[in-house]
Specification:
The protein is mainly beta. It has a single domain, classed as Sandwich (ATP Synthase, domain 1). The protein has one helix and five strands, in the order E-E-E-E-E-H. A hairpin with a 2-residue loop joins strand 1 and strand 2. The protein is globular, with a radius of gyration of 16 Å.
């Protein structure tokens, strides 16, 4: 989904994408995790590509054989020194 609508909904047996470590695939019964993903995602059903979704950055949540992808999320960069200073003030 992006900030205004659902882009794809359906059953697939593999999803491929990229994160800061590199390319990865999510298969049925995959461990639960959350990751910032980059480039694009490809959805496969019965070993055939059914949908390709290009983007620059998104958040992927995998939980109990369900994948949710959040698009339209801008990157926020906080310098480490400023973050440390703010934490000390609290």
């Amino acid at each position: 989904m992006d900030t205004s609508k659902v882009i794809f909904s359906g059953d697939v047996d593999r999803v491929s994408s990229y994160n800061e470590v590199g390319p990865f695939d999510v298969y049925p019964m995959h461990a639960n995790f959350i990751s910032i993903i980059k480039k694009h995602m490809t959805f496969y059903s019965r070993k055939k590509k059914v949908f390709d979704l290009p983007f620059s950055q998104a958040v992927m949540k995998v939980k109990q054989d369900s994948i949710t992808i959040f698009l339209g999320i801008e990157e926020l960069v906080v310098e480490e020194e400023k973050l440390s200073t703010q934490v000390l003030k609290i």
